[in-house]
Predict the 3D structure of the following.
Amino acid sequence: MTLKEKIFEAAEAVRTAKYAVGFTGAGISVESGIQPFRGESGLWNDHDPIFVEIEYFSKKPLQSWKKIKEVFYDKFDEAKPNLAHEVMAKMEKRGFLESIITQNIDNLHQKAGSKHVYELHGTSRTLSCTECSSEFDMAFADLNFLPPTCFVCKGILKPDIVFFNEPLPHFPLKRAKEETQKADVLLIIGTNAEVYPANEIPIKAKENNCLIIEINVQKSEFTDTITDIYLEGKATEIMAAIGKHLYLTD
Ligand code: APR
């Protein structure tokens, strides 16, 4: 089958699905200017991930925060949702997509208008105090003074993103499992599928006979194992074509 025919097949599967769910990784945000973690332009080629290891953060919060600001927050401030995020939000609005399970912390799905987004790796929107657990919206933090401290007890604030060696947040993980229990179509966009336990979610969906559609610029750990329809290409280009089939893009 040609890519065009596979895109048509995927769009029809979404259109006729009883319960379609999205599953996204860093690749969907690359065309918004946010670096992926792996691959030739991957973040982990340029930076040692130690700064997002919870042990390192507890010992050296200032050094960790300096990197977190440089690598995440400074980039997220300028980033805007791209066409792939926008088509997914329109799919939800039109009832073609029930929810999105994302590994991303960049908030671009929400900025695009998606409402039911479950963030397996946490969020960059809020911070929590390491002493008294008070939670604050990022808007209140001034990252020109690092590390940010708690407005209640002066303890050090930690971003609510999941650090390496930290457990995934209970509620998003619970909802992700519930969503993929119900899904008969899972639309996977831009993940290498390397990171556990997030990568278990699509595998469980497949075990429940869910049709797996995957969009990526190159094969991932899923492509030759669980993927039923592999659409090779950039997220914006493939999603523009799918959106066209569903009469979503203007
Ligand atoms: N369109 C679609 N896919 C793309 C694009 C694009 N324009 N650009 C890159 N990709 C694909 C890459 O081929 C790769 O498979 O996106 C994927 C990005 O992989 P990673 O950088 O490993 O991102 P992800 O799978 O989300 O990583 C999971 O790892 O470091 C942790 O917590 C971090 O959430 C992250 C997790």
Q: What stands out?
A: The chain has a mean pLDDT of 96. The pocket of adenosine-5-diphosphoribose is lined by residues 25-27, 30-31, 36-39, 42, 103, 121, 190-192, 194-195, 215-218, 220, 234-235 (CB under 6 Å). The chain has two domains: 1-34+81-121+168-250, 35-78+123-161. The two ends are 27 Å apart (CA to CA).
